[in-house]
Amino acid sequence: MGNGVRECPVEFPKDVEPVTSAPLPSEDNQEKKKVLNSLMSGALAGAVAKTAVAPLDRTKIMFQGDSIRLFPVLFPVIPLSPQEAYRLIYRTYLTEGFWSLWRGNSATMVRVIPYAAIQFCAHEEYKQLLGSYYGFQGKALTPFPRFIAGSLAGTTAAMLTYPLDMVRARMAVTPKEMYSSIVHVFIRISREEGLKTLYRGFTPTILGVIPYAGLSFFTYETLKKVHADHSGKAQPSPPERLLFGACAGLIGQSASYPLDVVRRRMQTAGVLGHTYSSILLTMQEIVREEGLIRGLYKGLSMNWVKGPIAVGISFTTFDLTQILLRKLQHGTGVER
């Protein structure tokens, strides 16, 4: 050096760690954007999917709730096949009007938008956490963590939004005169049956969500990985996403269907003249009165029509919305 002063490297004592810089603000912003994108994409995915199948969804709930006991004129027989379900939909249309097919859909939207937003966002976060734990950062999870991520995401969403699911079930199986609005359902249930009624059927819901969400996310993610490995393409096309989502919905809903029936029976017990006290007693009564297949699997054929459509639309909408939002934010096609 020109001034004759020799520079020496600074050495830290061995027992003192050098101070590292804090995470850059941009990293925090990127994480916030990622969470916000997942919430927005999930909310849109749930809204689009449920609105598309709302008439079939209401019909399925009426199957499970056995609304024939309330409306013997409107429902002279218990439908067991898609053909009978379509006749029921047409009869409801003639009796109550076209928009009655979407009765309860406002309650569904109030529930499904936060539910889907939380579920998809939680799934992304659980995938990241499990990936870090198992050492798969940036790579696809192995099968077991893949299933666990889906189950945890579904459980988280169900726990946070369950009372809204109860309200939606009540509105779907009752006449318009009984409940005038979502708020009216809450008020009447709280006044006439008690606040804890809002959580009736919660246990079978959680027990059903674990295989349903776990298998749905597991199947969809697995099919995407298999497709990428065999086709050489990083991302499937929208029709392929719909097909993968349909397969995921078919497998997930078939596995959890009996618990879904039990959940609906416990939720609608107050207006259908029953008192179901536990999951096992509810199952026993359903099987004793209606049989195993005609009881616990009532409406399953309708679910095989509606479920794959809804789940396929939901997964596809989520993925494509995520891709679109990332393109808008970054200006490049950073795909999921």
Instruction: Provide the structure class.
Output: mainly alpha
* Tally of DSSP helical segments: 12
Let me know the largest β-sheet: none
Strand content: under 5%
Low-confidence stretches: 66-80
Give a written overview of the molecule.
The chain is mostly helical and about 325 residues long. It has a domain at about 200-290. Helix content is about 70%, strand content about 0%. It contains twelve helices and no strands. Helix 7 packs antiparallel against helix 8. The radius of gyration is 25 Å and the shape is globular. The termini are far apart. The model is unreliable at about 65-80 (pLDDT under 50). It comes from Calyptomena viridis. Mitochondrial carrier mediating the transport of coenzyme A (CoA) in mitochondria in exchange for intramitochondrial (deoxy)adenine nucleotides and adenosine 3',5'-diphosphate. Belongs to the mitochondrial carrier (TC 2.A.29) family. This is Mitochondrial coenzyme A transporter SLC25A42. InterPro entries: MCP, MCP_dom_sf, MCP_transmembrane.
At a glance:
The chain has helices spanning 25-52, 54-65, 82-96, 105-134, 143-173, 182-192, 202-231, 238-267, 269-272, 279-290, 292-296, 300-330.
